């Protein structure tokens, strides 16, 4: 029997390609290459495909309080009507959203528990994770976690049975992030006036640990080396941008803001090292992107990062500034180590492919769409 599946992409925002939006888009592209019979509910005409059904106001997907509240009520009152009308057998959502009282089996995806661990960074969303998400998880037929680390957190904080949680690793955009250095990508550093530099990528929220990285960088004695920081400047640490001046390295730290994927690939290719000193990650795609471009990686030995990066990176203690400094120093000065990390990184990323991700998700959907409900 063929089961008709609904994929809920009402939270997807094309103009904001952060981690979860990128994940949702890549999952959709990969599932379109399978024979899974599904219909997509979305607020935006994502791709020209008959399986994409635009059913809501685009403002519903806004990444703000109003958008989140509107979507929460839509899931409880309007979504069930669509599911019944379209004779849906199962709902799959690539984000931690869903119905309190499901009218069909639902599979919910959880990427991380950041609002639990860093409630001060997510002053509103923390209440969603504390009071709403527990009910959604208990109403789910199955839960997808993007790493074993996230699965462990779900079991610990929500007391979810292990057999309900399936670990399915994301992939990365291998079309853009790969070992091929194009002439255009090679010219990107000059655009940002960079020559000999190390790279950090991510919005500068406190858990990304950018402040400690800048302190660590200030301890290095490489006169011509600069630190390039890619990502949106967070309002949580407005003084961060003035820190290099306080440390007398203002001319050696560049805040590049948000860049295109093509520009980012060029920066990965030409950086001496990629440094990712995060205090917590549910998965961590930037280290994969860097490895795929042949850039040696220095990252934290915390949460999901060892699980994702394996033995292909140099690990540091993210809470110890001296450890971060030492990690960068070792990769920059040990030619053999840097070459080893490049080679192992290129091998490591082969394990992460969105087609593999889509295949695993399809398996989980197929099994759970047979559940009596």
UniProtKB/TrEMBL annotation:
GO function term, MF aspect, one: glycosyltransferase activity
Keywords on record: Transferase
Coiled-coil annotated residue ranges, if any: none
Span of domain Glycosyltransferase subfamily 4-like N-terminal: 18-175
Keyword Transferase: yes
GO terms for biological process, alphabetical: lipopolysaccharide biosynthetic process
Superkingdom of the source species: Bacteria
Domain Glycosyl transferase family: 187-346
InterPro entries cross-referenced by the UniProt entry: Glyco_trans_1, Glyco_trans_4-like_N
PANTHER family xref list: GLYCOSYLTRANSFERASE WBBK-RELATED
Protein name: Glycosyltransferase family 4 protein
Origin species: Gomphosphaeria aponina SAG 52.96 = DSM 107014
């Amino acid at each position: 029997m063929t089961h008709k599946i609904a994929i809920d992409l009402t939270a997807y925002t094309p103009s904001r390609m952060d981690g979860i939006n990128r994940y949702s888009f890549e999952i959709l592209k990969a599932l379109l290459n399978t024979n899974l019979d599904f219909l997509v509910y979305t607020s935006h005409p994502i791709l020209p495909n008959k399986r994409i059904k635009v059913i809501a106001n685009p403002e519903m997907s806004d990444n703000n309080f109003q958008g989140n509240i509107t979507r929460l009520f839509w899931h409880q009152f309007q979504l069930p009507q669509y599911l019944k009308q379209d004779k849906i057998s199962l709902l799959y959502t690539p984000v931690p959203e869903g119905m309190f009282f499901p009218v069909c089996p639902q599979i919910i995806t959880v990427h991380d528990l950041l609002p639990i661990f860093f409630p001060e960074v997510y002053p509103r969303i923390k209440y969603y994770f504390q009071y709403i998400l527990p009910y959604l998880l208990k109403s789910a037929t199955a839960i997808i976690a993007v790493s074993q680390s996230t699965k462990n957190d779900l079991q610990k904080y929500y007391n979810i049975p292990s057999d309900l949680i399936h670990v399915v690793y994301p992939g990365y955009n291998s079309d853009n992030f790969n070992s091929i250095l194009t002439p255009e990508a090679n010219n990107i550093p000059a655009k940002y006036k960079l020559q000999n530099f190390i790279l950090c990528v991510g919005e500068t929220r406190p858990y990304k640990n950018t402040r400690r990285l800048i302190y660590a960088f200030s301890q290095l004695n490489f006169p011509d080396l600069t630190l390039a920081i890619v990502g949106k400047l967070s309002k949580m640490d407005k003084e961060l941008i003035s820190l290099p001046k306080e440390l007398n390295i203002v001319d050696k730290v560049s805040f590049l803001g948000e860049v295109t994927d093509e520009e980012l690939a060029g920066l990965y290719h030409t950086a001496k090292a990629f440094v990712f000193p995060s205090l917590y990650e549910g998965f961590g795609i930037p280290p994969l992107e860097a490895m795929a471009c042949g850039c040696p990686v220095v990252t934290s030995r915390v949460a999901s990062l060892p699980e994702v990066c394996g033995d292909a990176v140099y690990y540091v203690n993210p809470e110890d500034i001296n450890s971060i400094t030492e990690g960068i120093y070792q990769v920059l000065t040990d030619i053999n180590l840097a070459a080893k990390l490049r080679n192992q990184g290129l091998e490591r990323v082969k394990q992460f492919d969105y087609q593999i991700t889509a295949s695993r998700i399809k398996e989980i959907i197929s099994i759970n769409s047979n559940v009596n409900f």
